[in-house]
Design goal:
The protein has 312 residues and is α/β, with parallel strands linked by helices. Strands 1-2-3-4-5-6-7-8 form an eight-stranded parallel beta barrel, surrounded by five helices. Helix 4 runs parallel beside helix 5, helix 6 crosses helix 8 and helix 9 runs parallel beside helix 10.
Length: 312
């Protein structure tokens, strides 16, 4: 499982402030801490940065490599193609082609320019199942977009399947709940559409966007277990979320030593088989297990999400 640290993101006020002030120490420290927390790659989301993008990326890569080392995989997350290329050139100059371009969509103008850049530098490419009309509603439509647009274009420009990460786009339970199960099924289907199949990536925390902060980690980690069950290869996550990392470890090591661990594995295996856990699998007298049960019902769209769902 490739874990991509999400914390260098322009939407975060402290990151935006540090970027505007060119506070290098802030980014050195944040990169170092994400690596120490277990991130395998770091996403550098600088926003559009239409004019200053190349200069910002050049400076930021120096800071991040000082903190995490020049062997840390970097994900260049911006719509500014010139800024992405600056980052790619810098990594290659340092002897590493260890990079991800985040991202292309299936829009023709993006497909024309982004995949060739990934091929040129040997970078991995995150490809979103999103067209000019927006994000398809159901799993089948997202997979069709990947098969008819994203995968053929990657093959056309010479990107090997192991460097292509299809992102079926996680949507939030707050406002888009009915589409949340479709992403699970899209991951399942994407792992069966080709041999070799593309890698599949998600932005995990999107599932809990606009949800009260205390509730977000629970939704994220339960959804992660469900996505791992259908073959997820990579995720953009918060590496400082220790409970999330513990859930990932439990699944990877098949550790049923704790009651919660055993429930996670039951959930994983049930989703892998195309089903869900039953109430009889859960000790409702254990608050942690009861919260997982209620969260699964929300994520499967069996129970309508509201901010009080854990208390109902």
């Amino acid at each position: 499982m490739l874990l991509i640290g999400e914390n260098i993101h322009i939407i975060a006020p402290k990151v935006k402030e540090a970027l505007n002030a060119r506070d290098g120490a802030f980014f050195v420290n944040l990169a170092r801490k994400q690596k120490e927390a277990g991130a395998n790659a770091l996403d550098l989301n600088i926003g559009p940065q239409k004019k200053a993008g190349p200069e910002v990326m050049d400076w930021l890569v120096d800071c991040v490599q000082e903190g995490a080392g020049d062997d840390m995989m970097l994900s260049f997350d911006t719509t500014n193609l010139a800024a992405i290329e600056v980052g790619l050139k810098k990594i290659k100059k340092n002897g590493h082609a260890n990079a991800i371009i985040n991202s292309t969509s299936a829009e023709e103008e993006r497909l024309a320019v982004v995949p060739p850049l990934a091929a040129q530098y040997g970078a991995k490419l995150i490809a979103l199942t999103m067209a000019k009309e927006g994000i398809p509603i159901n799993a089948e439509a997202r997979v069709t977009l990947a098969m008819e647009k994203l995968m053929p274009r990657a093959q056309e420009v010479g990107i090997p399947m192991e460097n292509l990460l299809i992102d079926p786009l996680v949507l939030t339970v707050s406002g888009c709940q009915q589409y949340v199960p479709h992403c699970i099924e899209a991951v399942r289907m994407l792992k069966m559409v080709a041999d070799p199949s593309p890698l599949v990536n998600v932005g995990l925390s999107n599932v809990s966007n606009a949800v009260p902060t205390p509730m977000r980690p629970l939704l994220n980690r339960v959804y992660m277990v469900m996505l791992m069950a259908v073959g997820l290869d990579a995720a953009i996550i918060d590496p400082f979320d220790t409970d999330l990392k513990e859930a990932i470890r439990i699944v990877q090591q098949r550790d049923a030593a704790s009651a919660v661990g055993a429930l996670y594995l039951k959930l994983h295996d049930a989703v892998a088989a195309g089903a869900g856990i039953e109430s009889t699998d859960v000790d409702m007298n254990d608050p942690a297990q009861a919260e997982i049960w209620k969260t699964v019902q929300v994520l499967l769209n069996n129970v309508i999400y509201c901010e009080q769902y854990l208390r109902l």
